[in-house]
Amino acid sequence: MIRLLIIILTLIELGFSQKAFVGMNTWTHSQTVGLTGGGYLFSTQNEFRNPAMLTKSNRYFKINMIKYPAQINGQSLMTNGKWNKHYFGLKLNRINYGFFEGRNSNNQVEDDYSAGETHLKLVYAKFSNSERFAIGVTSGLFFSSIDNVNANALTISPGAVFFSRFGQLGVSLQNSGLTLNSYTKKKAKLPSSIVTSLAGKIEKMPLELEVDHSYSLIDQQSVFIFSGLLHLRNRLIIKGGTSTNKFDQITDVSFITNLFSDVGFGVSYEFEDVLFDLNAHSYGPGGFTFAFGLSVRY
Prior knowledge:
Porin, 14-stranded antiparallel barrel, mainly beta, 56% strand
């Protein structure tokens, strides 16, 4: 069957590349889209990618919906709380790659099949006695499926942040862990990376800036991400970001397209205890990603 052939070819490709579970790095948080993947140390609407930043987050219940090109979409639910100087968080991510038409070797239509990934995360963080230093860890279970074929992994992502009057310095190990069940007989490697972050507020200006450096432990590639938050009056926040991935998206098609390649933009507005978040990111010739977030503080 054609459907079976597609699945087999996909699994062979994953097996030869020795890299799977790439959805672990897919954006499922609205603000992350507007910041082009940055914002590891922003306390406003932080999604705990550096788990130590859980110590600086207000208590929220958050819903995020992401619309990617090619009918791919993502969702996430998040909540967090505090008990006796211990900080806890819970996040559930879901990526849906859509439905695909099934056909047999005679090109006859069969039942549709789908592909998707789910990541359940538990987060814990704690301040040092001086509250100048915080550590945290995220542990989770990742489930991936193509039709009725499954793969899953156990993930762990520790992080630490140092707070000073000049800003914050953070480091985190993203998506390390153990493969529990792979698509192939070959052991798949998780898309682990080391992220170093530096963030701070501009004196006498309502502006926060952050620079992140992500180094992939799989393909030894690096990327710098530059992002910022502009806090306006009436609880309005303008955000934006870009990264060095921009150079890989430049084409000969259009100057305007190249100019806005790999650029994120967003706006947040807080009304009493409810925060609305709209964001977009341009892949240049690859299209746009749109995101919506709704948070309720409790």
